[in-house]
Design a protein that fits this description.
- There is one protein chain.
- With 513 residues, the protein is an all-alpha fold.
- It has 2 domains: 214 residues, Growth Hormone, Chain: A, CATH 1.20.1250; 219 residues, Up-down Bundle (Growth Hormone, Chain: A).
- Helices cover 65% and strands 1% of the residues.
- It has 16 helices and 2 strands.
- Helix 2 packs across helix 12 and helix 3 runs antiparallel to helix 4.
- The longest helix has 33 residues.
- The chain is globular and about 70 Å long.
- It starts with 28 loop residues before the first helix and ends in a 6-residue tail after the last helix.
Length: 513
């Protein structure tokens, strides 16, 4: 076949010249276009799932029997579902066409959205339907492992960082646009319209779910029409695709050398810590701002929502910059720099000085119960935004003893920390699974990517539990000191395995680093 090197976005590898490479087995222009059409469909899949997740996140209708403990399980059920599903879909994608687990996972999400649209039918205890629906949405989101493994297997080393960055960018854009849709749906109102024939209520609660079901079906149609199986080695040459029996004489065989398992475990630990830290940061931001700045719950939800949306925009900009920077200094150095930036961000959050937060003294004088416990905050977030709440006292509740001796975290201090964490987190997140895909090499990566995704899901479960307990009992000083300690240990781990975090082909001398 006519071998063509069609890669306008990338510079050739060191030593990559017609004189020292097998150019006769490089891809044709037709194969190149098909490969990138397939990868871009996966970008769209990640974007759509992120939009639906964020649009549906807060608008959940729960009956009054759901206490804070149960709502915590509802929140965790998404990550639990994803943690269970990721290795399953990853294993499936290793031995069957990857289109299969993708389509099945999307149909599971569509079914979950349809179930959610009908949770209003039971007169009571619809909380169990909500728990199942959210868990199934998480189970469907296990296709992230398939998306990343497909992208890793369909790109060369030169293309890998750009492609992984595009996946993260699409995810970040989805997280930005999701709340925008959510705000628009609020204007539909709680009552909305009812379609009596099929007992469907179309209101601000069910519209995000119905949109999610529609986008899921559209996504399946596009996957059927466009996605094709492609696999290339680290140099960009076509490899035999083990998902099929047929082979081509123009395809190179997948190398059989062993993967560096120490590096694999280290990246899983690093990825767990990175997501653990960001999950606890997302969890603590609302109670922290309510305690430190005497914001009402409504103010905290509004302002913190704006902050998180700004972090999404910041992440997109950072990811675009990282794509260029990684060519000059490499992924390992950027990962190390990202962890240092995250550590600085949490270090700045440590309380200093002699000014203390406002205390909820009025609660004691009026014999009322302080309102800023974690459980009540969770319940408040899941209530209808249209519901008329009684005015509640603000400030740091006296029942949290640390409020009396812990200095306030100034707003400028908090915002500076937010900016730094917003820089470090997307960098670390992207570099960790980009390095991971390169360490694994051209072998099918479904199972390994499944375990990586599962470790991240576990982190999103444990992070909120950890920070809620430490913050409530010991306050922000202890909480952020422990986080700083965890980040320091992570940096030490990265230093220990730094030289092992190299691409599979570089390790075995096929490509120069």
């Amino acid at each position: 076949m006519a071998g063509l090197r069609i890669d306008s976005e990338q510079e050739p590898l060191l030593g990559d010249t017609p004189g020292n490479r097998e150019w006769d087995i490089l891809e044709t222009e037709e194969h190149y276009k098909s490969r990138w059409r397939s990868i871009r469909i996966l970008y769209l899949t990640m974007f759509l799932s992120s939009v639906v997740l964020k649009a549906l996140y807060f608008f959940l209708q729960i009956d009054q029997t759901a206490d804070a403990s149960f709502l915590g399980w509802v929140i965790a059920s998404y990550s639990l579902g994803q943690m269970v599903a990721s290795p399953i879909f990853g294993f499936w994608s290793n031995y069957r066409p990857r289109k299969e687990p993708l389509i099945v996972s999307i149909f599971i999400s569509v079914a979950a959205n349809c179930l959610y649209a009908y949770v209003h039918i039971p007169a009571s205890h619809n909380k169990y339907y909500m728990l199942i629906a959210r868990g199934l949405v998480g189970f469907g989101a296990g296709n992230a492992a398939v998306i990343r493994s497909y992208t890793a297997g369909a790109t060369s080393l030169q293309e890998r960082t750009n492609s992984m960055a595009n996946i993260s960018t699409c995810q970040a854009l989805g997280f930005i646009l999701g709340p925008v849709f959510q705000t628009c749906f609020a204007f539909i109102g709680e009552k909305g319209v009812t379609w009596d024939v099929i007992k469907l209520q179309i209101n601000m609660y069910t519209t995000p779910a119905l949109l999610g079901a529609f986008l899921g079906i559209l996504n399946v149609i596009l996957i059927f029409a466009i996605l094709r199986e492609h696999r290339v080695d680290d140099s960009g040459r076509q490899c035999k695709n083990i998902n099929f029996d047929e082979a081509s004489t123009d395809e190179v065989q997948v190398p059989q050398e062993n993967i560096d398992q120490v590096a694999v475990v280290a990246i899983n630990v690093l990825f767990f810590v990175i997501l653990f830290i960001f999950a606890l940061f997302e969890t603590i931001i609302t109670p922290l701002t309510m305690d430190m700045y005497a914001w009402t719950q409504e103010q905290a939800v509004l302002y913190d929502g704006i902050i998180l949306a700004a972090l999404g925009i910041e992440a997109v900009v950072i990811l675009l910059g990282v794509k260029l920077l990684s060519r000059k200094i490499g992924e390992r150095a950027i990962l190390l720099g990202g962890l240092i930036v995250v550590w600085v961000g949490f270090f700045i959050l440590l309380p200093w000085g002699n000014q203390f937060p406002k205390i909820q003294w009025e609660d004691l004088h009026n014999n009322s119960i302080p309102n800023t416990t974690f459980g009540e905050i969770i319940i408040g977030l899941w209530k209808s935004p249209m519901e008329d709440h009684n005015e509640r006292p603000t400030g740091c509740p006296i029942e949290q003893a640390w409020c009396l001796y812990t200095p306030v975290i100034h707003l400028a201090q908090f915002l500076t920390s937010v900016v730094l964490i917003g820089i470090g987190y997307p960098v670390c997140n992207l570099m960790s699974y980009t390095l991971y895909s390169k360490i694994l090499g051209p072998k099918p990566q479904g199972v390994y990517m499944g375990w990586l995704t599962a470790s991240g899901s576990g982190a999103r479960i444990l992070g909120p539990v950890f920070i809620s307990q430490v913050y409530a009992h010991w306050g922000p000083r202890w909480a952020f000191c422990l986080v700083c300690g965890i980040v320091v240990l992570t940096i030490i781990l990265l230093g220990v395995v730094y030289k092992r975090l190299i691409a599979f082909s570089v390790r075995y001398g096929r490509i120069q680093e």
